Structures are given as structure tokens and as C-alpha cells.
């Protein structure tokens, strides 16, 4: 028989028959020594696919075949092959932002030639970063030895990502740190949207939108969680606006939300505030959809169209916040492995 598929299916059917037998608990050992090359190859592949023991019979072949009485059973240790398949699964899971499954798979790898510690640190770094735990992410990513072969195609991106995390963790510039955090949050929302989790994605965009105003207000020494009226007066904010804020005092503090943040920026003559006021109707319509989300105050599910529309507004404001925002977003975009083999897609 020289039809690979037919041979494979014949072996597969027998494995299923024996594995699911209710009479006995069979141990399946597959000997691929005899038969045509196609039969041997298909048996070996089927055995690997179903994780069965593979053997071949060796011995004295001086007569062209194994002489009776000299037979030796050679058990094939396939751990290296299984670990290579595991690496393919890890790359696929990593590209899908499924970092914990990557860690679980890595913990079962036994091939010492695989740089397991660096791969574990890589996955732990991006898992932490995905959860906005920047210090943990930096601690793990700095331990990755990017000179190893497993990181060849992502070396450059890892350096960019490490630079971004380094600025978040160690930068003395509050504005630079905040801009990288904002870029991380925007990329986080994009990753959620790529997973079709639009409610999650929009929730992160809303926080990004809020953060843009808060970052800009810090330039005036204003905290939206604790408004200092004297600072507003120094910046010539109108008495009417201040009086309106004073009515909201609770526990001795004035706290304002997204809308008031931008209206205050407008009072300060800030371009971000002006943009908000000029587009207030459009923006409120967009944020209202978020408020109706099942992850906010409503029961509605959000769509890709809702996400794309909101993302456009957030990116416009983020770029107005800092001229280097495109650079920050690029550096905080998670690296991806290049998937070349078709088997990696399974």
C-alpha cells in the first residue's frame, strides 16, 4: 500500500478501537519496522500523533535482514519532537495573547536545548503587561536573553518593548511615563478588539479617554480626583465654573469625571478642551454607547463599528496630547512571532 492517508486512517481506526475498548485496557505499541516505506512512515506519524510507544526491531543484518536470535527492540524516545510541537503551540498562543497557556506548556518541556527560562520570562512579561503590571513585566522581560535562537525574529521588537517598559518604570519625566502608560492602554484595547471582545475593548478606550484629560491636567498641577480651587483661580478659570464645581464637594474634596475634565481644559484655553467642546455632541453619543454596555451601566453589547469609531476619537486626542504618541503606541505594541509552518496554525 502506497497511499499515505489510507494507511494512516487504518492505523488510526485501530487505535480508536483499542483505546475505547470496554473489555480491556490495552497498551498500544507500534512497530514500524516492516512493511512498505509508506506504511512505516504513516504508522510512525500516527503513533506520534496519538502519543503511542514506537519501536523498531534491530539486530544482525549481515544476511540482509535481522537474523533470528539477534533481535533487539529499539524504543524511540520522541520527547524532542513533542517539545518542538509544543514550541509551535507556544508561538501560536503567544501571538493570540494567551500567555498563561504558554507558561503551562513550557512547564512540561524537557528538552534541555530549548531556552526554557527565557521563554518563561518572555511569557510572564507579556502576561503581566497585559494586566498593566508594568514593574513585573519589566522585571521578567529584562531577564530574556534575546541572543538565543528562539527570539531571532522578535529581537528588535523586544528591545522596543523593553524601552517602553523602562520608561514607565524608571523615567523621571512624569509626562513621558504617563504617555507610555496611555499608549499601553490603547494597545490593550486594540488587542481585546482583535479577540472580538468589543465590550472589554471599549471599556479600556473609555479609561484611555479619561486618562488623556488627566495627563493634560497634571501639566497645570491639577488632579481631577482632588481639585484645588486656588490653582483654578491662578489659571483664571471663570467664577461660574468654579462655583459649579464647589457644589460637588464631598468629604472635603472636589472630584470630577471625564466630561468635566475636558470642560475644565477648555476653561484653561487648552486645545484638548477646545476639541472636546467642538465635538461634544459626537463624543457624548460615543461615550453614551459605552455607558449602555453590559460592562458599564447597561445590557447592550458593543460592535466593531462602535469600537472603531471610539478608537478614532481617542487616537485623535492622544496625538494632540503628545506629538510623539505614534512612537509610544508603536513601542508598546506587543511583539509577535512569525508563523511560517502550516502546522503552527493548528
TrEMBL record:
Residues of the signal peptide: none
Boundaries of every Csm6 6H domain copy: 82-165
Coiled coil: none
Entries under InterPro entries matching the protein: CRISPR-assoc_prot_Cas02710, Csm6_6H
A Pfam family assignment: Csm6_6H
Descriptive protein name: TIGR02710 family CRISPR-associated protein
Amino acid at each position: 500500500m502506497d497511499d499515505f492517508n489510507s494507511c494512516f486512517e487504518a492505523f488510526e481506526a485501530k487505535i480508536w478501537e483499542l483505546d475505547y475498548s470496554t473489555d480491556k485496557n490495552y497498551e498500544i505499541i507500534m512497530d514500524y519496522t516492516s512493511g512498505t516505506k509508506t506504511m512505516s512512515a504513516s504508522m510512525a506519524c500516527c503513533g506520534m500523533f496519538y502519543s503511542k510507544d514506537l519501536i523498531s526491531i534491530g539486530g544482525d543484518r549481515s544476511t540482509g535482514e535481522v537474523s533470528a536470535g539477534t533481535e533487539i527492540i529499539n524504543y524511540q524516545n520522541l520527547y524532542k519532537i513533542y517539545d518542538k510541537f509544543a514550541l509551535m503551540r507556544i508561538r501560536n498562543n503567544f501571538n493570540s495573547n494567551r500567555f498563561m497557556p504558554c507558561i503551562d506548556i513550557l512547564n512540561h518541556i524537557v528538552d534541555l536545548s530549548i531556552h526554557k527560562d527565557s521563554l518563561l520570562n518572555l511569557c510572564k512579561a507579556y502576561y503581566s503587561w497585559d494586566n498593566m503590571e508594568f514593574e513585573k513585566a519589566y522585571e521578567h522581560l529584562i531577564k530574556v536573553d534575546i541572543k538565543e535562537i528562539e527570539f531571532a525574529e522578535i529581537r528588535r521588537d523586544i528591545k522596543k518593548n523593553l524601552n517602553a517598559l523602562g520608561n514607565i518604570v524608571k523615567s523621571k519625566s512624569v509626562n513621558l511615563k504617563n504617555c507610555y502608560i496611555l499608549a499601553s492602554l490603547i494597545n490593550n484595547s486594540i488587542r481585546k478588539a482583535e479577540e472580538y471582545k468589543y465590550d472589554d475593548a471599549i471599556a479600556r478606550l473609555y479609561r484611555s479617554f479619561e486618562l488623556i484629560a488627566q495627563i493634560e491636567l497634571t501639566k497645570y498641577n491639577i488632579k481631577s480626583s482632588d481639585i484645588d480651587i486656588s490653582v483654578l483661580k491662578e489659571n483664571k478659570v471663570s467664577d461660574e465654573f468654579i462655583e459649579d464645581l464647589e457644589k460637588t464637594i464631598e468629604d472635603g474634596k472636589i472630584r470630577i469625571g471625564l466630561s468635566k475634565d475636558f470642560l475644565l481644559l477648555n476653561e484653561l484655553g487648552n486645545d484638548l478642551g477646545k476639541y472636546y467642546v467642538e465635538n461634544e455632541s459626537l463624543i457624548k453619543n460615543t461615550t453614551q454607547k459605552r455607558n449602555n454596555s453590559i460592562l458599564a451601566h447597561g445590557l447592550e453589547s458593543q460592535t466593531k463599528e462602535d469600537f472603531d469609531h471610539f478608537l478614532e476619537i481617542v487616537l485623535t486626542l492622544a496625538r494632540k496630547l503628545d506629538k510623539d504618541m505614534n512612537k509610544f503606541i508603536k513601542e508598546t505594541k506587543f511583539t509577535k512571532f512569525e508563523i511560517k509552518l502550516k502546522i503552527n496554525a493548528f
